[in-house]
Predict the structure.
Amino acid sequence: MFQYLISISPLGFMYGSAGAFLSPENLVGRSGAKFPPEAATLSGLMFSINKITEEFSQEQLRDNLFVAGPFWAESHNKQNFYIPIPWHKVIAKKAAGEWQIKNDEWALIGNTEAIEPDYRWQTITTWKSSVQGLRTSQKSISDNPWRFVPFLHPKIQEHERCVQQKNGLFLEYSVQMPDNICLVYLSTYPLKKGWYRFGGENHVVEIDCEKISQRTLELLSQPIGKSFALITPAVWGSNRFSYRYPQHETFPEPLKMLTDKPLPYRYRAKGNLGRGRYAVPAGSIYVLKESINKSWWEWDEAWFPKEGYSLKKVGCGLCLPVEINGVT
């Protein structure tokens, strides 16, 4: 099971793009915006640092390093970090509702009109709280605490201090985080406190590490049962195909899903850029035909795709059990 909570506090801006830039003819909007960094970014950092410190053997990390995230927390209360609100709970500022199964179909209970959520994160200690309970406790829910800030970068001519006439400008979106907010990841190995370069543009961050609370470990150790929600994105399938759930013969077939559009996902292993695929977004709900009577940690690695090594090692599809009215 995960043992360590690794917190990352940016020293300034962080990079917030998936690698796509706007062309000089189109400088409006965000291109490929993606934040926070996936858990694979932390995994790569830990492997790189270990090559220098040699604290563990590379074989130890390869076989036993598991990381998961991204999450975030207030710096003074890291153990009660924020995780995605499951999609069956819809919480807006003026209303709230809950998706339930009625007459074998999804139905929004608690409000007769469609609701767009204003809050996308909840504290891990309130995982089992009701929709109304979360809504009345404003400190337990939040929208994204960071904001995107555009930077227009000029590319200077080689022999003159002038912007190149062709492809001389591109727009980068960096992320500004409040001073009292940090990113949070879970890990089976510790990382020494210090300053590191982290993320796509190697921005400097301060990293701290502490043991995960027993309360969180108990929650992560619960059997998944017949219905669960993802708290990290999930990539299912092979290197060529992306699916909505594991295609392995021993994985129970989902009867119902509640999800959003898929997310682009690309995993870099050993310096090689992997094949692009799609991930089921965090918060997605699965209702299974049969119960899974074990926690995510105990899931068969054969259920997870492999690219270099199993994507379970980078927290693919980390999930927690949820109660859905109408599921028997």
User: Anything to note?
Assistant: DSSP finds four helices and 26 strands in the chain.
